[in-house]
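Today's session is about reading a structure prediction critically. Students often jump straight to the picture, but the first step is always the sequence itself: look for stretches that repeat, for charged clusters, for runs of hydrophobic residues. Only then move on to the predicted structure, which in these notes is written as discrete structure tokens rather than atom positions. Here is the chain we will use throughout the hour.
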Amino acid sequence: MVRVIELVTRNPQRATAHRRCYSPHRMRYDPFSILPIPKPDPIFAVTAEALAAGPSAINGTIGVFMDEEGKTMLFPSVALAIADIASGLPSERYGYPPLLGLPEFRSAVERLIFADRSRVSGSIATTAGTGSLAVNLRLLKVLARSGEIYLPSPAWANHAPPCRDVGFTVREVGYLEGGKPSIGPLLEALRRRKSRRGFGVLLQVGCHNPTGLDLTPDAWKELAGFLAKEPCTALLDFAYQGFKGEPEEDARAVGVFLEAGVPTLISWSAAKNHSIYSLRTGLACAVVPDESTKRTVEGTYSMITRRLHSAAATFGQRVVARVQERYPDQWRADLRLARETMQRKRQRMKEHLPESLHSALAGYGMFAMLPLSGEQIIRLKEEHNVFLTLDGRINIAGIPLKRIEELCEKIMKVG
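Below is the predicted structure for this chain, in token form.
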């Protein structure tokens, strides 16, 4: 830095030549040239188009719960918790947080996941559900000695890529049979499996993304019974607790796996059910046999995140802990209203769309997968200012109720 300053003050022309010599555009060796041209994220790319189209657009892309004015919904219970915390922020300690996260946050979320079920679990705070998935996949890669993970498909667009990123061989199997969720293809694939080395299975717990269609309780029980006899570790993606039923009801599938004795990892997110998308708050959790294993797992979790981002940010953790400590009844009422709103929107769509589309709208939560062709979806965008991803996924929670009829009329025009 001193040498450059001298050049500028004594000989400006020479300084310019010096900088030009070291310009990155004149590098002899360009390692960046081997990078493949990246494909844009299929959800965020269309979302950007929808936002650029302005308020007249109907945006059914990214999974955010919107109010009637098209703004991100903030639950009243969460607003109360944030107001509680805000006044003390100037006097807060801003040193490094614990690697595992805030104890009050972890215990609050574990109570939501497990209710009164007896269990020993290790956990760590993460950067929302995606971060939780990334952390749990790294742990699972160590546990699943075969390097295989089975993934029912269609799945969330961000399920298979991070599995491959950590080195898994992804075995995609069908999720739907005759338009309905089924464990048949997964069981068939696992029965054909010859290796006895450990493997993983990645499953969604309720409000399936992208279809909104969930396995029945009997199917969950049958699947857990089968996996308990296999060298399998299950990773349950639990991103929408409280969006289908009461939180305890939505956690029953987790309980089924615990009762069957399936080794289980859980990726939980506060983005949707606490409406704090931007705070990126989640939890990675592992059900373990004893306290000694818990310490080992939490130490492993800590090593994983230390190499990624050290520790997760704490503000969202504090919000969740405060909601669950002071405003749990209001929070449950907020969730109940969200569920009722999403079901009203589904029902309204059924009233204005032909019966052939009703089965696609029979599910729960934010998403449905409309049986539209890529050509129809492009026409919706170009001719009617309606934005969906090319696979037909629609975020019903993102469409104002007052615009549902308009949406259906436009879908009919490309049908």
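Discussion point for the tutorial: The first strand starts at residue 58 and ends at 59.
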